[in-house]
Amino acid sequence: DIQMTQSPSSLSASVGDRVTITCQASQDITNYLSWYQQKPGRAPKLLIYDASNLETGVPSRFSGSASGTDFTLTISSLQPEDSATYYCQQYDNVPLSFGGGTKVEI
Amino acid sequence: QEQLVQSGAEVKKPGSSVKVSCKASGDIFNNHGVTWVRQAPGQGLEWVGGIIPTFGTTNYEQRFQGRLTIIADKSTNTAYMELSGLKSDDTAVYYCAAGGPNYCRGGTCYSGAADYWGQGTLVTVSS
To answer: How far apart are alpha carbons B25 and A34 in whole angstroms?
Structure first.
């Protein structure tokens, strides 16, 4: 099974900061990786798919990149509404697996 | 805009079963698979399993094998997840999700990133 190691588990930043969250896969997953945002009491929301493709309607301050088995979600200018927990997920093969999550506080 | 609407919260005794439904507003199941994800209180997301209704293929997380059944009724655009032999650590919010492309690898097919999610169903297992 593919393990996804996400870091950091939490971070605190200010409005306007550039924030980076990373996910490392235990093996090659090509670019079959997505990023989700989840706010308390709500279902996850898809932000990025195929490692770097922005989902329709998602603000352009969110971006994703990949380098080998390392993946990055970047928020270029943090906004108050970005306070949430972020998860990566691999879908290169079953069982699908999520990273442990990163809680972003502002 | 597609919507997924799940059935309501459930309280179950240990050892019993729960069946959660997920109804799509349109014919999303004709082109996409359905994934089930759960989240225990205060914890992260965990993939449970999924189904591709068009292919009739299912995939289950290994540790639920024998207790989990996922089906889809294309005539009513409704997917179901049934978990039996409930234990206290099955207490979680269960989400259905759909909309992503399907992938086929090594003889099985499954759904990828999902852009439509249900509202979640809280299943509480308690004696």
So the answer is: 24
What are the beta bridge partners of residue B98? B34, B116
What is the Cα B70 distance to its own chain's centre? Answer: 7
Dihedral angle computed from the Cα positions of residues A101, B1, B2 and B4, in that order, rounded to the nearest 10 degrees: 60
Nearest by CB to residue A43, choosing from B61, B100, B120, is B120
CB contact under 8 A, A95 and B35: no
Contact call for residues B86 and B15 (beta carbons, < 8 A):
yes
Note whether B5 and B25 are within 8 A (CB): yes
Q: How far is CA B120 from CA A27, A67, A94, B38, in A?
A: 31, 34, 22, 9
CA distance linking residue B34 with residue B58, whole number of Å: 9
Q: Check CB contact under 8 Å for A50 and B62.
A: no
Average pLDDT per consecutive 10 residues, chain B (127 residues; last block may be shorter): 92 98 88 94 96 90 93 92 97 95 87 93 97
Is B120's CB within 8 Å of A94's CB?
no
Residue found under tokens 């971070």: A11
Residues of chain A found within 8 Å of residue B103, distances taken between Cβ atoms:
32, 91
